[in-house]
Amino acid sequence: MRAAFCRCCLIALFAASYGLDGARAQNLTSTFGNPKSDKAREIYIESDTMEVEQKANRATFVGSVDATRGSVRLRSSRLVVNFKKAAKGAKAKTELTKLDARGNVVVTSKGQRATSDWAIMLVQANKVTMGGNVVLTEGKTVIKGNKLEIDLNTGKSRVFGGGSSGRVKGVFLPSQKK
Question: Which has the closest alpha carbon to 73: 21, 31, 36, 115?
């Protein structure tokens, strides 16, 4: 049984979904859920353990981490959430500054899936980077690379090659009409 369940009402989004555009393997158009269009504002995080370091403004979730926000789900071995206090007193609120997922990272949303060794979101900049054995899947379409950068402000994504060939690899299959 999971030792810790934490319901966090936070204003930020974690990396989650991606759009695959078959015409552009190395410069994908992304449709990540974002705070402006996604009505769900709460992030629910569940893990085996959670440790909060108030002085460091950091919370660490370890062991079968499962985080959801709306239709977006993030799973990893470890998730470190950095935050800052935006105001003091009765109107005090906490804002996320950085999310750092490590170990078997899997992000899913609406039939789309991204996997990698790690993922980092810089909340203020609204940018996500996933790295190490990146695999993007939607249906039978698959894109592989070493690194994925996503700008949630512009919706632009870019996959970088790696491995022995140093290239991005993709298989694009048209959807079948019924």
Answer: 115
Asked whether residue 178 is assigned to any structural domain, the reply reads: no
Total count of domains within the chain? 1
**Reported pTM:** 0.73
Domain that holds residue 95: 4-171
CATH number for 147: 2.60.450.10
Nearest to 58 by CA among 90, 99, 86: 99
Confidence of residue 41 (pLDDT cuts 50, 70, 90): low
Domain membership of residue 176 (yes or no) is no
41 within some domain: yes
Q: Residue 117: pLDDT band by 50, 70, 90 thresholds? A: very high
